[in-house]
Design brief:
The protein is α+β, with helices and mostly antiparallel strands. Helix content is 13%, strand content 33%. The strands form four sheets. A five-stranded mixed β-sheet has the order 2-1-5-3-4. It has a two-stranded antiparallel sheet with strand order 6-7. The relative contact order is 0.16. The structure holds iron/sulfur cluster (SF4) (2 copies) and FE2/S2 (inorganic) cluster.
Length: 187
């Protein structure tokens, strides 16, 4: 439903470490009503700048959430294919990982200030609520979860909670449709 083509200004973080001296924010006029953040990024790519780098995978279709598309929308981490665009929004790369270019980060490289932190997190899955959909498995950028069969039903389990240390992105908790996950900082 992309009927409304009224254009609004948004800001997008741009930085190519291989060529740019400093990061900058570009302003674009884009349609927001009826568009996801990812839809807006595709709009920019198609209409203004095919050099804009962002990750796009399953586009959030069906249950196949692939988890490749997190960005920061007004400073809050979110899957860009799952949140609706807002006029005036600012889009930045996910803040916890090293930048590759523009909105693309390397999920294998936690930012130094975060990797050095001795924070630990308690990750709890409410098994009464969990339906085993695997969204958390796909979304967690550091592979904390597995879905296993328990008493005949599929349930999520945080098999590697230590990987979450220093990366309290909350993507799992905020994207579980059944409100089954909590991530609490212990230290
Ligand atoms: S914890 Fe939530 S996201 Fe993960 S498998 Fe269970 S219902 Fe799905
Ligand atoms: S908060 Fe931790 S467990 Fe949850 S998605 Fe982020 S890194 Fe994974
Ligand atoms: S593109 Fe797959 S979750 Fe967003």
């Amino acid at each position: 439903m992309k009927a409304n083509k009224e254009l609004s200004e948004i800001r997008v973080f741009r930085f190519d470490p291989s060529t740019d001296k400093e990061p900058r924010y570009e302003t674009y006029r884009v349609p927001c009503t009826g568009y996801t953040v990812m839809g807006v990024l595709h709009y920019i790519y198609e209409n203004y700048d095919s050099g804009l780098a962002f990750r796009s995978g399953c586009l959030g279709k069906g249950s196949g959430r692939c988890g490749v598309c997190p960005v920061a929308v007004n400073g809050v981490s979110a899957l860009s294919c799952q949140v609706m665009a807002e006029p005036g929004m600012t889009l930045e790369p996910h803040p916890k990982f090293e930048l590759v270019k523009d909105l693309v980060v390397d999920f294998n490289r936690v930012k130094e200030q975060d990797s050095g932190r001795r924070a630990t997190f308690q990750i709890t899955v409410d098994l009464e609520r969990c339906v085993g959909c695997k969204d958390c498995v796909h979304i967690c950028p550091v592979g904390v979860f597995e879905v296993k069969r328990k008493s005949g039903k599929f349930k999520s389990e945080p098999v590697d909670p230590a990987s979450c240390c220093g990366v309290t992105c909350q993507m799992c908790a905020s994207n579980c449709s059944y409100d089954a996950i909590s991530v609490e900082r212990l230290t």
